[in-house]
Design a protein that fits this description.
Blueprint (H helix, E strand, L loop, with lengths): L1 H10 L7 H8 L3 H12 L3 H19 L4 H7 L5 H12 L3 H8 L2
């Protein structure tokens, strides 16, 4: 169960996720999923998803010429502002600054 849940996050990170919806699909409560996921992986499903999205954003900023808007959408953000805010909070730089510094 837990590995299937993590797999859904790993493969579907670009989609909008609601833990409650995933819980319904798996037949477990959202509280149970959050608790068992955190016990197994050391972070909440949301933290894991944020980390996963950030890793993909970093790669795309460094190795593609995709627009910031396209990268935001591809990494599961509904708008560029949310993406930029989350990226800067996690990395200390805006996506544009990061790209400039790391050559993308």
């Amino acid at each position: 169960m837990r590995s299937r849940f993590k797999e859904k996050l790993d493969t579907g990170f670009a989609a909008e996720f609601r833990i409650t919806e995933l819980a319904e699909q798996t037949g477990f409560s959202a509280v149970y999923l959050r608790r068992t996921f955190a016990a197994r992986y050391g972070c909440s499903p949301k933290e894991y998803l944020d980390q996963l999205r950030n890793e993909h954003a970093v790669r795309r900023l460094r190795f593609t010429d995709d627009s910031i808007t396209d990268i935001a959408r591809a990494c599961g953000y509904s708008d560029v502002y949310q993406f930029s805010k989350a990226f800067k909070k996690r990395n200390g730089f805006s996506p544009t600054e990061y790209r400039r510094m790391h050559g993308g």
